Amino acid sequence: MAENFEQHSDISAADLARLNQEAQAEATPSTAKIIWNEFKADKPAMAALIIVVGFIVFVMIGALFINTPKMMETNIMDYFDKPFTAGFWLGADSGGRSVAKQLIVGSRNSIGIAIGLTVISSTFGIAWGLISGYFSGYIDWGMQRVYDFMMMLPMTMMIIVLVTIIPHYNSVSLTFIFSIFYWEGTSRLIRSRTLAETQKDYVAASKTSGTNHWKIIFKEIMPNISSLIIVDCTLSFAENIGVETGLSYLGFGLPNQTPSLGTMIANANDPSNITLYWWTWLPAALEIVVLCLSISYIGQVLRRAADASQRQGAAD
Amino acid sequence: MWKTILRRVMIMVPEVIILSILVFLLAKAMPGDPFTGSINPKADPAQIKHLMAINGLNDPWYQQYWNWVVHLFHGNLGNSYQYQEPVTRLIAGRAGNTLWLAFFSMILTYALALPMGVFAGRHEGKLPDVVIRFYTYVTYCIPFFVILVLGIWIFGYVLGWFPTTGSVSSDAQGWVQTVGSHFYHILLPGILGALFSTVNIVQYLRSEVIDAKHSDYVRTARSKGVPSKDIYRHHIFRNSLLPIAAFAGYSITGLLNGSIFTETVFSYPGMGLLFVNSISYRDYTVITALVLIFGLLNLLGTLLSDIILSIVDPRIRIE
Q1: Which structural domain, as residue segments, surrounds residue B131?
Q2: Which of A183, B143, B165, B239 lies at a CB distance of 3.0 to 4.6 Å from A121, suitable for a disulfide?
Q3: Which pLDDT score, from 0 to 100, does residue A263 have?
């Protein structure tokens, strides 16, 4: 093509290369580049990103070196050891178990479940929203009624009841139980955007040229709302950390011998623990606060990156 | 108008039926049988079988479901095994506490959210707006139960300003003291609940005010010489009041669902704590009744919001 062009024009090869370079420099930067610029421009966002990624990598690797059953053994000699005594960085709990080690394994479990829950519920919610918004008519009506019904269910109660019915549950089945109830928010958001997107010309053009419905939905509409999807996944990840820990706090999440941030905060349920032995639960509570704030801040930066009028990053 | 409301209510009917079937089947799937704890463990197995037969527990599930629904309409939800008293009476005793707390939280939510939303919108981009947006960002993403635990630790235990358990103190005498003590007990959970549920209203009102600032009716009012304060108070605020009112239904639902956590943290004897306790004791007549009640309350909450919205926004009616 280029050779062909050269033969019929009076622009030299050097000029063409220069023009190409200029065009590339002025073209819209890639999504990844925009997001990266946005983080570079916003120092707190960079800090949040480093905290979250660093922390997740740290607990994932750290937990591999901890023998959980051995850690959960009761050791009465270390009953409520204070922080920085007897080799415990964060002290020990009522069973003489290291709080710091429990925190690492508990974070791994809680974050792992939150990631799993985000992946499953977002995938389902996105597919639901896309299909419902694209097809409209009776299909949309029916799917909306299912949505309404799910919204009506008292979620926390239903999850607790399901957890008591299932005899032997573990973190995987728990993730699936949570996923049944946490796809609605995503689906609603994706549906409303899909409804607007379906009215656009490129969808109409694809339809008239006979493109397969599924191809239009997943290969054309979905990439066009990908920025919305990324933002929503990040924000639901922050929310989902609260889901498992909340249930574990009430005593209906992960079983007792599996540490979770929620079960650690549940130490605060005892009136003497909450004030006298604050180190058994406060680190877990503060960790959740920091994690949720950081993740949701990252989500806001991503949202800004998706909306050209709000960007702070240099437009280079 | 009425057609929309009627259609909305008609949609509710199958939802209620499916909910009741679901709740019934969940109750059937729970471990244990309804005689656990109420009869002598040494009782003859044949006699238990006989009891199951005369209570209709060997009938097909739809027969049992029908009997259950008939009992339901007679206000008979069965007996609690843990407390040995009718479920209706047990729940009626607790419902008041939960509803008062939710009601108080909701009033406080609006009292906080309305001025904040208008204020943030009015001073868009300036310091108050930045502060309020920071506040909504913090309250939006921290899990509610963590806030409750931190709140009860700081204000209940360390500072000792608020009671940390129960709904009324035992040495309150006379109705003035009793009412005062009740109020004192819902103060901290109510304030925490309100502080952390303003996000939606504040954000909505803020963007609404920012939009209205540039609209024609505001410009007209300005050119007539209406003071800026009055424009915000009477023109803009009044215009966005009804959609805000529509949030009420959803916010009731949110507060009720949050009540499980609030009541557990504050050992506050309401329906949420009753639910958690009943789960521990496998007291499943109480559990099914509570799931059903919360489901119906959720339904009424969203119905209320949808009706208000359809009054406010004619576009919804055409759909």
Answers
A1: 87-312
A2: A183
A3: 84
Q: Which domain holds residue A222?
A: 35-310
3-state class percentages of chain B: helix first, strand second, coil last, to nearest 5: 75, 0, 25
Asked if residue B30 belongs to a domain, the reply is: no
A17-39 per-position pLDDT tens digit? 888 888 877 777 777 777 788 78
Three-state secondary-structure class, residue B301: helix
| Nearest residue, CB atoms, B299 vs list A152, A241, A288 | A152
- Where residue A119 falls among pLDDT bands split at 50, 70, 90? very high
CATH code, domain carrying A297: 1.10.3720.10
Residue B249 maps to a domain? yes
Contact A285/B19, CB-based, under 8 Å? no
What's the complex ipTM?
0.83
| Nearest chain A residue (CA) to B262 | A250
Q: Do B149 and A246 touch (CB under 8 A)?
A: no
| Closest CB to B146 among A251, A252, A288 | A288
Distances (CA, A) of A123 to A131, A180, A186: 12, 12, 9
**Nearest neighbour of A157 by CB, restricted to B29, B152, B294:** B294
Domain count, chain B: 1
Asked if A246's CB is within 8 angstroms of B144's CB, the reply is yes
pLDDT in tens, B60-104: 777 788 888 888 887 777 777 777 788 888 888 888 888 888 888
In order of A130, B13, B47, B48, the CA distances from B43 in angstroms are: 58, 43, 7, 7
Tokens of A229: 């999807």
Contact A296 B137 (CB under 8 A): yes
Tell me the one-letter amino acid at A296: S
Residue B101, domain CATH: 1.10.3720.10
- A216 located within any domain: yes
Per-residue pLDDT tens over the stretch B221-245:
888 888 888 888 777 877 777 778 7
Cβ separation A285–B146 shorter than 8 A: yes
Q: Is residue B80 a part of any domain in this protein?
A: no
